[in-house]
Design a protein that fits this description.
253 residues; alpha/beta; Rossmann fold; 7-stranded mixed sheet; globular
Length: 253
């Protein structure tokens, strides 16, 4: 019986190792994909996609919403990781800019086969079913969400509503990933918003207040000791070099 248990344990370890190897390979292949836009690949040095994707921990077949996808940096990478059985929704704000870029984005994403553009008016519900998405990416956008004119030191109602929509469409156990320029601890909402940054603890307070569980962070990925976190990064030569936090939140099961 002990021998059987030992063999079973070895089999589990080998299976886990194989799955891990496949996961690493999927990430490497996604980064090396020649279909990626050249402008996106050129940003890899600053964005460190290998480490971020390891932290996010997507699986083949996952459904991902890239909120505010813009030029599709993360959408293209997610496409390779989730594979043919998965799906990536590249959300864009509907309007004049989207209409101007729609044809170019459609052509850019066509080779991937599993990226779908999702134009949406601000504040509108997502055209997705309840509990249908595995993960949501919010990259360098939370500094627009943690403060609005008139919200003072409260998490704005518009943002609370947005994260309510995130909760609706996420599967139980699904995750929201926040990547954001870090503001100095203790800075206020208007001040940090003016820097185009957010204090990490403020993000944690805000997002857990709307029903998400904090599931960890990866502070070691983007740390710059020369960034005092009290500056407008694009005016101080820190573009691509800021201390940035990466946080994961989970919808309760």
């Amino acid at each position: 019986m002990n021998a059987l248990k030992t063999l079973a344990a070895v089999a589990v370890v080998l299976a886990a190792g194989s799955a891990s190897a496949e996961h690493h390979e999927a990430i490497a292949d996604a980064i090396d994909n020649s279909d990626r836009a050249e402008a996106n690949s050129e940003r890899d040095g600053a964005r460190k996609p290998d480490q971020v994707l390891e932290f996010i921990d997507l699986d083949a077949g996952d459904i991902v919403l890239d909120y505010g996808a813009g030029g599709g940096y993360w959408a293209e990478l997610f496409s390779g990781v989730v594979g043919d059985a998965g799906k990536v929704y590249a959300h864009q704000r509907a309007g004049e800019r989207y209409e101007e870029q729609k044809a170019a984005w459609s052509e850019q994403f066509a080779p991937f086969g599993n990226i779908e553009l999702m134009p949406l008016e601000s504040g509108a519900a997502f055209p997705l079913g309840d509990s249908s998405v595995d993960s949501i990416m919010v990259s360098y956008l939370f500094h627009h969400m943690h403060f609005t004119d008139g919200s003072g030191e409260m998490f704005p109602e518009s943002s609370r509503a947005l994260f309510g929509e995130f909760r609706r469409i996420l599967k139980p156990g699904g995750t929201v990933i926040i990547i954001e320029h870090a503001a100095a601890d203790g800075s206020g909402r208007a001040q940090s918003g003016g820097w185009h940054r957010t204090p990490p603890e403020m993000a944690k307070t805000d997002i857990t207040s709307v029903g998400f569980e904090f599931a960890g962070d990866a502070p070691e990925i983007f740390h710059n000791p020369d960034d005092d976190r009290k500056n407008v990064w694009f005016e101080t030569g820190l573009q691509g070099k800021t201390t940035t936090f990466v946080q994961k939140y989970r919808k309760p099961d």
